[in-house]
Amino acid sequence: MSAQAPPGESQVRDHRPEASSAAPGSAIPGRLRAWRLWIILSLVLIGGVVLSLLTSSGADRTALSASNAAPEGAQAVVRVLQEQGVDVVQAEDYGSALDLLGAGDASLLFFDPNEYLSGSQLSELDQAAGQRILVEPTFAQLRALAPDVSQAGLVPQESIEAGTVSGAGCSSPAAEAAESVTAGGLAYRGPLTCFTVTGSSEPPAGLFAASEDGSAAVLGFTGLLANDSIAENGNAALALWALGSTDTLVWYLPVPADIPAGDAPVNPFSLLPDWVNPLLVWTLVVAALAAFWRGRRLGPLALEPMPVVVRAAETADGRARLYQDSKALDRAAASLRAGTMVRLASRLRLGPGSTAADVVQAAARSTGRSAADVDTLLNRHVPANDSDLVAWSHELLYLEEEITES
């Protein structure tokens, strides 16, 4: 029969089994556990690389690219133009665009929403191209390639909600052939303004504008050429008339490599001294070694004998020292007050639903003290310092003894 701990003592028993000796075949599993973090990271990295290789394709995803078959591409209208005998050539960069335009009388389709080209580059394109078709051009691009056309802001929301702009409203053969187009994008005004979307005291602005001599034309919405909307309304007719006026069409979408060297953003690493790069590499190596050193497993847990019995007085003394060191008089007072109220309610045989006022009234009846004095002692008193806390705890103890003896 096991001996029981004396009353007032809390027992903390260690039920952990003793460490068993390591088996000879446990070395490999132990090493796998030690390296499991690096194994998991390696598997995740390999899986990510394999997934990217499987899901990636070499398809062109550039908006309005002649070889892009996605909804935002323009492969559909390019193929129709080629079937009609137009030689559509997609320029890879600025240099190839100039070479293709200089080889003969060719039209230029130009779409540069990011404004990669400078003013001088735009001027060179203007001189090399016989006819310019611009898609959603900016102010600088209009000034260089279509000076007779100006930008008039966004297409009104009511026109976009309607979805269609009907009626050419101009004498352009391309617009007359289309009759209606899809609304969206930007509005422009020029000598020939078609498919008007604004009506005010100012000259009307529309989705299609052209110069008087037909050397420049502006499409105000990429949806007039995109694969997903080319078949809507008269978009296809407008695109074929505007783009198929010459035997050769140079399809040029500028890329970041076309940015002039002087206009390209400066690489911040080029401003650093030469010794910074080796220092960064060394810092990364040291950080990786430190992470491995601090992150490695420290080995199996070491079992130590634990005390079988911890006396209640020891735990109370330890908690009191913690309160004293942290100067937590309020926490200590709250703990004493709560413990006293619980013990008094039990000795006075009050139910579990009793309140602090019930305890005060019952204690006053049991000891003969006034309810105000008991309430002040139990609920109102706030110790000002350590000595006051000790004196107050003694008064609480005397109150409990009175109720016990009564």
In terms of topology, how is this protein built?
Blueprint: E1 9-11, H1 27-34, H2 36-55, H3 75-83, E2 87-91, H4 94-102, E3 107-110, H5 119-128, E4 131-135, H6 139-145, E5 150-154, H7 157-162, E6 164-166, H8 173-178, E7 180-182, E8 186-189, E9 192-196, E10 206-210, E11 216-219, H9 235-243, E12 248-252, H10 276-295, E13 309-311, H11 312-325, H12 329-347, H13 356-367, H14 371-380, H15 386-405
Parallel strand pairs: 2-12, 3-4, 3-12, 4-11
Antiparallel strand pairs: 1-13, 5-8, 6-7, 9-10, 10-11
Search tags:
disordered N terminus; elongated; single chain; alpha/beta; two-stranded antiparallel sheet; seven-stranded mixed sheet
What does this structure look like?
Among the domains are: 75-258, no CATH class; 312-405, no CATH class. It is 44% helix and 13% strand. The protein has 15 helices and 13 strands. The chain has a 7-stranded mixed β-sheet. A two-stranded antiparallel sheet has the order 1-13. The chain has a two-stranded antiparallel ribbon with strand order 5-8. Helix 5 packs parallel to helix 6. The longest helix is centred in the first third of the chain and has 20 residues, at 36-55. The two termini are 40 Å apart. The relative contact order is 0.10.
